Amino acid sequence: MKRNMILAGAVAVVLASALSATVAYRFGMSHAATGATSGAAVANGAGKVDPATGRKVLYWHDPMVPGQKFDKPGKSPFMDMPLVPVYADDTADAGGISVSGRQVQNLGLRTVAVEQGSLQPKLEVSGSVTWNERGLTVVQARNTGYVEKLYVRATLDHVTRGQPLADIYVPDWVAAQEEYLALRHMQGENLAVLIDAARARMRQAGMPEALINQVERSGKVLARTTITAPNSGSVLELAAREGMTVAAGTTLFRINSLDSVWVNAEVPEAQAMWVKPGTAVDAHAAGFPDQVFHGRIQTLLPEVDATTRTLKARIELANPGSRLAPGMFVRLALGVDNRSALLVPSEAVIRTGERSVVMVADGEGKYHPSEVQTGQEADGRIEIIKGLQAGQKLVVSGQFLLDSEANLRAVGTRTTPAASAPKEYAVVAVFELLDGDLAMLSHPPIPELKWGAMTMGFTVPKDGWPKDIKPGQKVHVAFQVPAGGQPVLTHVMPIDAQGAHK
User: Fold this and answer.
1) CATH code for the domain of 351
2) Do 241 and 130 share a domain, yes or no?
3) pLDDT by residue (tens digit) across 282-326?
4) What is the phi/psi pair of residue 237, to 5°?
């Protein structure tokens, strides 16, 4: 019996609390309904003069719910703060809105100055090492002959400049040498012309000058020649084998130097403007963490990969000790040239996909939206190409609220074209829970949409739900209602226990 009485008492307390909360909520909303008026009623209240400032008042509103207008001052039914007057001279400024000093503090508005500075983008890409084709040498047979001996027997063997590669026996050289030696041993007048002609025939037969000089010194027929490496490198192709017959012009060896290598780097096309031939590059290979390989961009190949949207840059790197081998991957740091530009924090720019807008602080609580043209972005700062001047003050916190107010007044630059984008609504709600990409919010009645007070799901903003908002916490949200679709949140701002934005 006692237990039932205790249980009944607890239920009564819960019901009383719920009834009290409902009454208080309905009282606040009824106050909003009686205070919020139509355009005609607001017009009746318009024309009043604020005794504190002597300025003409158009209407009063809550900056957190700017779409709701009131014809007299008082306390906001949505938040624990007084209504704010909207003055006639606020709308006189082209594209401007005005916010009181107290509201600036409550909204947490912060401003920064537009600076003339140097943007230092960090461009790091990866690339694969390949052969430097400018270091390729081809060794061919100069005459028809026979390969008698090979000194290099496998591809990719390393050779040095002047190293013997093969011995070739050339029968055609025998007759030319014998004719030359026979004329050398003859005696008589006018033999010098004949000797010079015999020497010329040896050259025409393909004999190198060093071999001709050797025949002169030795006085013997030398039908064999040793082919040597013209430069140091690795043997990429070995087309000769002992005993085989080779014709004039046959490629016997292909040798490529490793003193320098090429690296084919993939540069995102959006960052292609930062790179150009001659740009310095530092490379790091996983196998040699303590060594830096230096080089420069040799050329930008005129082709963009359709899948990765990257531009290929050919980089030539010095390769001391021939450590870098074709096929290796390296990380590249491109020495991007710094340039002077107008810079603002990235968070100050409101991006809509079609344009970029900033809120400019004009001083004395006045602000106006301004469309800008942006450039490159790095280290939390973005380049302003057009639309601002150095020294101007920009809002970097709470700017979307000011922009929403400017859109509601239909002044200045709009971040969303009114003819094509859904209308945006603002309301103070209570966050209940997060279910996937839906945020469950409890909101008061929204007369414009003919919605009553309810708990419903809203699609979270594109950048996700803020992590610092807990269930049961008040939030100021702005949302759009696509035709026949789920309401989509565009902005979310938490409210602390004192009713101020965090």
Assistant:
1) 2.40.420.20
2) yes
3) 999 988 988 999 999 988 888 888 888 888 899 999 999 889 999
4) -140, 135
Q: Measuring CA to CA, which residue among 271, 277, 328 is closest to residue 121? A: 271
Q: How many CB atoms lie within 10 A of CB 449?
A: 12
Is the backbone of residue 327 left (phi > 0), alpha (psi -120 to 50) or beta? left
**Which residue in 347, 355, 398 sits closest to 373, CA to CA?**
355
- pLDDT per position as a tens digit, 11-64: 343 333 433 333 333 334 334 434 444 444 344 444 577 776 777 887 887 766
Of the listed ranges 88-92, 137-141, 253-257, 407-411, the one predicted with least confidence: 407-411
Buried-state track 62-98, b at ≥16 Cβ within 10 A, e below 16:
bbbbbbbbbbeeeebbbbebebbbbbeebbeeebbbb
DSSP annotation string for 443-489: E--BGGGTB-SEEEEEEPPTT---TT--TT-EEEEEEE--TTS--EE
Residues 52, 5, single domain; the answer is no
- Is the whole model's pTM more than 0.70, yes or no? no
The range of the structural domain enclosing residue 64 comes to 36-90
Tell me whether residue 428 is in a domain: yes
